[in-house]
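cron nightly-structures :: item 1 of 1
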Amino acid sequence: MLTYPFKLVTIIAEPVLEPRITQELRKLGASGFTVVEGRGEGSRALHAAEIPGINVRIETIVPLEVAERIVQHVAKSYFNDYEVIVYLSDVQVVRGEKYSPAPKSGGL
């Protein structure tokens, strides 16, 4: 089976950030994303909204250069003021053309 290497970028964030982050993903070159609501507990035990564990997991599969832009942007824009985690995973996809960068509509 023919597969193509990409990066899975996973962002765990406060739900209030979902619309902003998903809009920014498109501007940074992601062709799409998936959002899943979740529960859990991090190193600080309580969530910033004082509701333990409520968060969203935003995932996108992108080429390495787009993944790097996303990680840099998330770190710069959110780490100081919000409960946000971002991590990368190596993935192999079958339909590589589905994960090519989206046309850019302007920078951030």
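cron nightly-structures :: done
The chain has a mean pLDDT of 86.
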